[in-house]
Design goal:
The chain is of the alpha+beta class. The protein has 3 domains: 3-112 and 206-222, Alpha-Beta Complex (Nucleoside Triphosphate Pyrophosphohydrolase); 118-189, no CATH class; 229-289, Arc Repressor Mutant, subunit A. Helix content is 38%, strand content 21%. The chain contains 10 helices and 10 strands. The chain has helices at residues 46-58, 78-83, 110-113, 125-140, 145-159, 171-180, 185-189, 209-226, 240-251, 257-267; strands at 3-15, 18-25, 31-32, 35-37, 65-71, 86-95, 105-109, 238-239, 270-276, 285-289. Helix 4 (125-140) packs antiparallel against helix 5 and helix 6 runs antiparallel to helix 8. The longest helix is centred in the last third of the chain and has 18 residues, at 209-226. The model has no long low-confidence stretch (mean pLDDT 88).
């Protein structure tokens, strides 16, 4: 069995309060994250390797990047099941202002890929009309009362169904549950979909990249919750309402202005510039990040 090391880049931007993720087209025609192998003969570090082939592949340069997670499960990648080799993947997060990549790549609407994650206007319709009923049927299909109870608990906790509350940071748990229940296109590809089950209307991704995206989104939401240091997604100066819109777009839930201001005051992340927006409406103070 051979072991190879691959790097996945989750580059995210927010435009007009729509979170987007950079993607390229796979051989099968599905979108996938920009990814490439680590070549120790060329690159001195994993980060150098990622930056090199990301620029070659998409025409875009990454600013600050952060290593988020390492994936190494033997059945994680469909390619491993075919070759028998183990593929170890290191996922990186990069935040950037949206720019035009080369023609072979583009920006995907994050909530087209994970539509059940956007709760800014309340519970999404796809959860009410499809996901919740299908998962409840899946739970009741278990062979024992203990198994049914365990599945019900998982469904309620993952999707914030009564009596549980929605946890925005549990994105990867929701993906895993939908995959296990056979409600995703990837489950059909991986042999886990059951006959007669209707797949959730969403954008599937190649390899296991939708799960990688869900995992990185979970981590990003944890980071933004306690320290919204997202200067890469905003211009040099900005009104607080613009920062609020970006934080909400990433978290997928609304945030009260007072709560955001308290968080910013505690963390000393922003400071006023003394200038105001130049608009026809009510002017607003402009802020900038302190670091």
């Amino acid at each position: 069995m051979a072991l190879s090391l691959e790097l996945d880049a989750v580059m995210m931007a927010v435009s007009l309060e729509v979170p987007r993720v950079l993607s390229v087209r796979s051989r099968e025609g599905l979108p996938q994250l920009p990814s490439g192998p680590f070549d120790p003969m060329i690159d001195l570090s994993l980060e150098q390797s990622l930056r090199r082939w990301l620029l070659d592949m998409t025409g875009l340069e990454a600013g600050r990047i952060e290593q988020i997670f390492t994936f190494g499960g033997h059945d994680r990648d469909p390619r491993s099941r075919i070759s028998g080799d183990r593929i170890l993947t290191v996922a990186y997060l990069a935040l950037a202002m949206e720019a035009s990549p080369v023609e072979s790549s583009g920006w995907l609407d994050l909530y087209a890929v994970l539509p059940w994650e956007d709760h800014r206007d309340g519970q999404p319709r796809v959860v009410r009309s499809h996901i919740a009923p299908a998962l409840q049927d899946w739970a009741e299909a278990s062979n024992s009362s203990d198994a049914r109870s365990a599945r019900r608990d998982r469904v309620e906790a993952a999707f914030g169904l009564q009596p549980s509350e929605w946890d925005a940071t549990a994105a990867v748990e929701r993906y895993d549950l939908l995959h296990e229940a056979g409600l995703l296109e990837e489950a059909k590809r991986d042999g886990g979909a059951q006959p007669g089950i209707m797949i959730v209307d969403s954008t599937a991704m190649a390899i296991n990249h939708r799960r990688v995206l869900a995992k990185v989104l979970s981590r990003l939401r944890e980071m933004v919750t306690y320290r919204p240091a997202i200067s890469e997604l905003l211009p040099a100066t900005f009104p607080i309402r613009e920062l609020k819109g970006v934080v909400e777009a990433l978290n997928g839930v609304p945030i009260k202005p007072q709560a955001l201001r308290r968080l910013l005051d505690r963390s000393n992340l922003t400071e006023g510039t003394g200038n105001q927006t130049e608009t026809a409406g009510r002017p607003a103070e402009l802020f900038r990040f302190t670091t």
